[in-house]
Backbone:
């Protein structure tokens, strides 16, 4: 079995999210978790942009922009949710974002349940290109 892409970075992000959830629990608005996660990721030494405008591509052409909650280490898209439970529609939406951004790896993190939920997503259609990201 092959090694997970960006394993160390995703583990740091998930660890930071676990600290936030352990401290705050569930029940707050997404922006509260976003601010707390920014503090924990900074403590972990991660470099990131919060509410980062990402270009969306279709057939290799830019067609618009959308903000991601976090863009970490110029490599990983992180989307936050505050839901009772993650459902397939949320996971599919995050996968679609990865494809539209031509990002290789993403995390979907849900703070809304009594236990932290997270999904690590990998874009199977990722195409390496020096032009796919504009940090």
Residues:
């Amino acid at each position: 079995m092959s090694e997970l892409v960006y394993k160390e970075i995703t583990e740091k992000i998930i660890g930071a999210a676990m600290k936030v959830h352990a401290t705050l629990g569930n029940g707050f608005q997404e922006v509260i978790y976003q601010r707390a996660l920014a503090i924990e990721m900074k403590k972990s030494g991660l470099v990131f942009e919060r509410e980062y405008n990402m270009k969306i591509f279709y057939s290799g052409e830019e067609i618009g922009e959308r903000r991601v909650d976090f863009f970490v280490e110029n490599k990983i898209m992180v989307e936050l949710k505050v839901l009772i439970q993650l459902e397939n529609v949320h996971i599919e939406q995050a996968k679609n974002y990865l494809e539209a951004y031509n990002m290789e790896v993403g995390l979907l993190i849900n703070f809304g349940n009594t236990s932290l939920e997270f999904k690590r997503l990998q874009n199977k259609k990722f195409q390496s290109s020096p032009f796919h990201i504009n940090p």
Observations:
- The beta strands are 48-58, 61-72, 76-81, 105-110, 117-122.
